Amino acid sequence: MQRTLSFSWAVLAIVVPAVAQEKANVSPGNVSQLLRDGSAALQRKDWTAARDASLKATEVAPGNSVGWSYLAKAYQNLSDFPKAIEAYKTAIELNPDDRYAYNNLGNCYRRVGRIDEALAMFHRQLEVVPRDRYATYNLALALGSQSRWEEALPWASMAAEVAPQEITRLTFLGKTQIRTSHFDEARLSFDRALALPHEPMAENNIAYLLGDAGIDLDKAWGLVSQALEAKQRLVCEPESLADGDKCTEKLRGLSLMLDTAGWILYRQGKIKDAEAYLQAAFGVTPDSANQLHLSVVFAKTGRLDQAVRFFAQAHVRSDFARADATETIRELAKAAGGEVELDTLLSRVTVQESPRVDGKAIVLADASGKILDARGFAGVEQIVKSMKLAPTAWPGMSLRTIRTVEFLKVDGQWKPSDSYVGVTPPPPPCATQRSREITDLTPVAQSISCSAL
């Protein structure tokens, strides 16, 4: 759920510190115009234009910290984190009391996996601005990403206290309380979150946290059922391949909810019912967490080979680090007869370690996954005709879909590797995380917000 931050862009656009110009032939007015151009581009989310204007500003006035700050924010939103880091460091060197730079630098460090440095920057931000609304939350998230839940708890509490209307903060606080076995407090945090105006995804997120912890399963099922009902009313079915992405976006919005529903049913011991929802989620937009859930269900129902293959495939997805594979490994080892036996089974599965796409086919599939029509490329016609994809049907809903099937060419042979609803690829993994948690950035950087649950 995206936040709306309060910030005066008019002020940002015109306030430029009086810094001596580094080049005699550059007037203060020219530098001010470049900074105004950079600010305006950041406001309209034209990151390339913001970068270009800010680069010019830093070239002609390298001692102006605002230019470096704008440049850093542009690089951050362009996902060029190494350059963003260097620009933020320069801005901080020029202005050690910058009220946002330490927090944003911390987020860049976190995005490149330099968690200790991220933590140091969030702490530094809190020295500059005690109880900073951004750094308190980001510090809690960063500690949580390392499973340092006891350390994260006081920061999560403070983050919710300084911004009590932020539903994502209350939800994360509830998660932190669950992870530290403060279950009653977690229930209160979730109730506070649900009392705020919210989208159906917020109900899904809380349902998942309850279900994953194995507590209040009836309540969790009620929440996700309500969220699904609200969302599935909005979906449509394509009539032919010509419909392209007409129905894609709304259907993808169901994927996380379907996985949540399936996992809650699994926790309730309703494994057969759980599989229908989990398979539908996999058919829409597969991710590592969903594939790990299906792997557990396959193992529990005697389909060990399929369970092992799904686990191996999940392991090479780019979002695997965000998923918790502990339970899956435990159940697979139990089904295989031990960890040694599981390792032997895994060693027999061949998966592409660096996922790539060598070709794509666009297909129209019915709710059972049967291919009705296809538009492929030379060499895969017969393969596509014989394929059957994951079903997109669950109790009360059955959907025809347009899907993309991705292929790898291995030893001269085309092999299907993945599929998803729609013609365009899904967003990056961080944009589809179950938590929908928002990493707190300053206003110009909030478009890149995403974090692991």
List keywords for this structure.
globular; 453 residues; alpha+beta; 4-stranded antiparallel sheet; two-stranded antiparallel ribbon; Serine Threonine Protein Phosphatase 5, Tetratricopeptide repeat; disordered N terminus; 6 strands
Q: What's the total number of strands?
A: 6
CA gyration radius, whole angstroms: 24 Å
* Strand ordering within the main sheet: 2-1-5-6
Report, as a whole number of angstroms, the end-to-end distance: 14 Å
Percent strand: 5-15%
What is the percent of helical residues?
A: 55-70%
Known CATH architecture of the domain at 9-162: Alpha Horseshoe
Looking at how many chains there are and whether they match, the oligomeric state comes to single chain
Q: Helix and strand string, N-terminal first?
A: HHHHHHHHHHHHHHHHHHHEEHEEEE
Please work out how many helical segments DSSP would assign: 20
Overall morphology: globular
> Class of the domain at 9-162, according to the CATH hierarchy?
Mainly Alpha
Q: What does the model show?
A:
The structure is a single chain. By secondary structure, the chain is of the alpha+beta class. Among the domains are: 154 residues, Serine Threonine Protein Phosphatase 5, Tetratricopeptide repeat (Alpha Horseshoe); 71 residues, no CATH class. Helix content is 57%, strand content 8%. The chain has 20 helices and 6 strands. The strands form 2 sheets. Strands 2-1-5-6 form a 4-stranded antiparallel beta sheet. The radius of gyration is 24 Å and the shape is globular. The two termini are 14 Å apart. The N terminus and C terminus are likely disordered.
